[in-house]
Write a structure and sequence with these properties.
This protein is mainly β. Helix content is about 5%, strand content about 40%. About 20% of the residues are buried.
């Protein structure tokens, strides 16, 4: 018996039903308390992550609307700047494939910062503006 032996860490089981794919697509969470505009950050058949300035609290229900599709969902977690939603029923493989094809995610952009003239930019110093793709 090893009294002071280090225990092996136990990995938490994966809670997601399927893998998520990074996307970049304009979206909105439509709710009775007000719409939350933002961008899809990633998506799977059973849920998605939405980047938004004012994410709703966990437990709220609504409709996640992006240009290709819309789905009833429930917010499962929320933190400043983004939230995770679980779809009431999984979206079809065809809708998932179209979303991934039409809204591929590029490299991560830096947070928006105001220029001297007040305009916001996400360009790092010394770099050119990234090409954005919208769905």
């Amino acid at each position: 018996m090893k009294l002071f032996a280090r225990a092996k860490p136990v990995q938490a089981p994966e809670r997601r039903a399927g893998p998520r794919t990074r996307v970049d697509c304009i979206a909105a969470l439509l709710m009775p308390s007000g719409d939350r505009p933002g961008r899809l950050f990633d998506i799977s058949a059973t849920g998605a992550r939405l980047s938004t300035q004012d994410p709703p609290a966990a437990g709220c229900s609504g409709i996640l609307d992006w240009t290709i599709h819309e789905a009833f969902c429930r917010v499962t977690w929320s933190k400043p700047g983004m939230c995770g939603v679980e779809f009431d029923k999984p979206i079809s493989a065809e809708v998932l494939k179209k979303t991934i094809e039409k809204a591929p995610a590029g490299s991560r952009a830096m947070p928006a910062q105001a220029n001297d003239d007040g305009a916001h930019t996400t360009v790092k110093p010394g770099e050119q503006a990234p090409t954005r793709r919208f769905c």
